[in-house]
Amino acid sequence: MHPNPAFRQTKEAAALDAARKRSFGTLAVNGEDGPLLAHVPFLLSEDGQSADLHLVRSNPILRHLPCDAVVSIMGPDGYVSPDWYEVPDQVPTWNYVAIHLRGRLATLPQDQMRDMLDRQTAAFETRLAPKTPWKTGKMTPDVLERMMRQIVPCRMVIRDIQSTWKLNQNKPDDVRLRAAEQMERAGIGAETLFLSKLMKRPDG
Question: Which residues contact 199 (CB under 8 A, 6 or more apart)?
Answer without folding.
Answer: 95, 167, 168, 176, 177, 179, 180, 183
